[in-house]
Amino acid sequence: MDQEIKDPEMARSRMARIANRLARDDIGKAVDWVNRQPDSPVRDHAEVAVAWMHANQSDWPTTMSWLSDVSDRQTRENALNQMFERNWDKSEQQLDPELLSAAEAAGFGKAARTYQPQ
């Protein structure tokens, strides 16, 4: 898992795959492993993977905290929009209130308040 890969895109993809694989057995292991990696743009995809792990458990504060650590704006916005889309209540025409509250607390309030599904 500590193998160095020169191509940044391959390294990003590999980190996300490792985080996902570790999380199948134990989400805590995945979190610990990602936290031990250098905080760089290469880590962004692993951070998004961990955010999704928490989103799948509806742990919105932790999800938003992980997304706030993603350094690449486009990667972060894509993940946010995918989460908003998945958690849009079509009958109520709004986001899950707990997700909205967590997004507000993490500094993503405007994005959450103005989100409209495509």
Report on this model:
The protein is mainly α. It has helices spanning 8-25, 27-36, 44-55, 60-68, 73-86, 97-105, 109-114, and strands at residues 88-89, 94-95. The chain contains seven helices and two strands. Strands 1-2 form a two-stranded antiparallel ribbon. Helix 3 packs antiparallel against helix 4 and helix 4 runs parallel beside helix 6 (97-105). The radius of gyration is 15 Å and the shape is globular. The relative contact order is 0.11.
Core attributes:
7 helices; mainly alpha; 118 residues
Instruction: List segments where confidence is low: pLDDT < 50 over at least 5 consecutive residues.
Output: none
Strand content: under 5%
Report strand order across the widest sheet. Answer: 1-2
SSE run: HHHHHEEHH
> How helix-rich are the residues, as a percent range?
55-70%
The coarse silhouette is globular
Q: Output the radius of gyration.
A: 15 Å
CA distance, first residue to last residue: 38 Å
Strand-pairing-aware structural class: mainly alpha
The count of β-strands is 2
Mean pLDDT: 91
Biggest sheet record: 2 strands, antiparallel
What is this structure's SSE topology?
Elements: H1 8-25, H2 27-36, H3 44-55, H4 60-68, H5 73-86, E1 88-89, E2 94-95, H6 97-105, H7 109-114
Antiparallel strand pairs: 1-2
Helix pairs in contact: 1-2, 1-3, 2-3, 3-4, 3-5, 4-6
Q: Summed up, what is this model?
A:
This protein has 118 residues and is mainly alpha-helical.
